[in-house]
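Researcher: I'd like a structural prediction for the single chain below. Treat it as a standalone chain; there are no partners to consider.
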Amino acid sequence: MLDELIEKRKKALSESEQHKNRRNELNAAASTHARERNKLNGQTREFVEEAQKNKELRDQYNNEVQALKEKRNELNAKANEYFEEIESFKKDHSAFQKSSSIKEIQRQIESMEFRQQTEVFSTDKERELIDKIKHMKAAIKEQEDELEQNKELKTKLQTARDLRKEASDIHDTVTNIAELAQKHHDLMVEFYRKADQSREAADAEHKSFVEAQEAADEEHQAFITCQKELRDYDKVISGLRNKKKKTKVTKEQREVRQEAERIFQLFKGGEKLTTDDILLLQRSKLL
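Model: Treating it as a single chain, here is the predicted structure.
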């Protein structure tokens, strides 16, 4: 029975070591997943911050674009008022009645310029559109040169031109700022995309962390159970060994007593005793 218990204890000890080693491995894995999760969460925060910065810049530029567009439209509206006065003059003078409306031509130019900025053309189509705008501007210039022969019209034309020039300059600024707004919008979208990716990766690492931690806890509980079994085995084995030891001592004492009684009978019979025989009798308290 003792040998059987010793074998069972060895098995329990081996299992205990296995659970302890596995627990330590899982705890190490959990720590690795936690560090990677924290790193990814840090990256996510950085990406979101960058996205927010670009969003603020985009909104700032869009607000500037809106304000500049309003200013540009006001200037074009004032210029149109002068051009309408010029058109009224042309209707009252037969020499100009066959000429196209400068206002209408300008409206067409603005429409084509807007298409050029917002639509995608092939190289040939874009060149064709640019040439058409160029010819239409030349037609306006030709009419204006003719109208400038009239002193009053010349002043109105110059004022209208100045307004158009200022509106055109603002339009160029609007285009540049709109491009900046689009640039920061694209950056915002990209940083939010990166934030989503790193957040998903962090969630995956957190899931792995939880799984490893739970598995480590299970291994630790199994280790504790094995340790309890070992303590129980140690108590039983120790008790059996002590009992065996006492039994052995009792048997030896009995054998010594029997030997001492045999020698004592020889002594009583007049046999000569050796020193060892006498010591044995004394130890057995027969002398």
